[in-house]
């Protein structure tokens, strides 16, 4: 199934997740249909560790960073109307398994960001010009 066909299914699955409520078994099941179980568990682990950072600029632009075990990755969970690439992450897995092999349609970092947004578990960071410069330079 082309990745873009999976996005509405993912959106429906995410919509069933409510902040402050336990994740329903059906939701886990749907996520495991869309992604390998290890990727789903890794994404929830990132959310549990509060490793999703959200930066909002004074002009309303939103950036995300996910703190990995040794490297921090920049994530764009929604590139708007780009027809081919709807998400972006700076991790190697995104380049290899999503863009080149097309074996998955998002990496664990992007899934963690969309889950964290849905669960209201992003760590909001005030963004100053240095942060933005770092994000742009990645
Ligand atoms: Zn990634």
Automatic annotation (TrEMBL):
InterPro entries: Znf_SWIM
Record has Zinc-finger as a keyword: yes
A single BP term in Gene Ontology: double-strand break repair via homologous recombination
Keyword line: Metal-binding, Zinc, Zinc-finger
SWIM-type domain residues: 73-118
Species in which this protein is naturally found: Pleurotus ostreatus (Oyster mushroom)
GO cellular component term, pick one: Shu complex
Any one Gene Ontology molecular-function term assigned to this protein's record: zinc ion binding
Transmembrane segments: none
UniProt name for this protein: SWIM-type domain-containing protein
